[in-house]
Design a protein that fits this description.
Length: 203
């Protein structure tokens, strides 16, 4: 756990895989949101598609956590998503722990990697891309494994495209709004920092 002056500076230059006090707090908040969405079932939206059962917004905490606080926070939020998906499986697809959990572990990690790769150009662009690619990591991972394990006929995959797009667009919108809002609050400025802020040096 990273301690000392790096915490006081609001970001510092610690390892992406270390934890500052702030990251622990944010992980708790994001984990709490994910737990709430999972426990209340508000994170799962029924859709009339055979075998799939639900669309989801449960990937969004993992995306936001990864973009804002790094891959470990994103991975933990994704783990909560996957565990709830497995425990409350309404489809044979998600009764398989590999399908229910494995792709969800990667959501926040991919979102983090995309965000840090693009933030030098634009924080907003990085946030949108993190939302889209984090969401696609979930959708492509779940669908791909479902086809691989024989739970989902390949012919059904095209019917899932509207749902996949809708989830990606929603994740992009929420991520850019939340990330910009958090960076504004942390910077104390009227416009979000685009480069070399304490927040960005944290990575």
């Amino acid at each position: 756990m990273a301690m000392g002056s790096r915490e006081e500076g609001g970001g510092g230059g610690g390892s992406a895989f270390g934890f500052s006090t702030r990251q622990v707090v944010v992980a708790g908040i994001i984990g709490g949101i994910a737990l709430f969405l999972g426990a209340t079932r508000l994170g799962f939206i029924p859709v009339p598609i055979p075998l799939i059962g639900n669309a989801t917004i449960m990937h969004i905490p993992a995306v936001v956590g990864g973009a804002l606080e790094g891959p470990v926070v994103g991975l933990l939020a994704g783990l909560i998503f996957g565990v709830f998906s497995f425990l409350y499986a309404e489809s044979p697809i998600f009764a398989n722990p590999l399908i229910a959990i494995l792709p969800r572990l990667l959501i926040g990690v991919v979102a983090w990697a995309v965000f840090i790769g693009l933030r030098r150009f634009s924080v907003d662009l990085a946030s949108v891309a993190a939302g889209v690619f984090g969401s696609l990591t979930n959708s492509v991972g779940v669908v791909g494994l479902a086809v691989l394990f024989g739970f989902l006929p390949l012919a059904v995959v095209p019917t899932l495209i509207p749902q996949v797009i809708a989830e990606a667009v929603l994740a992009a919108i929420v991520t850019v709004v939340v990330v910009r809002g958090v960076l504004l609050a942390r910077s104390g400025r009227t416009t979000a920092p685009e480069e070399k802020s304490d927040e960005e040096r944290r990575y």
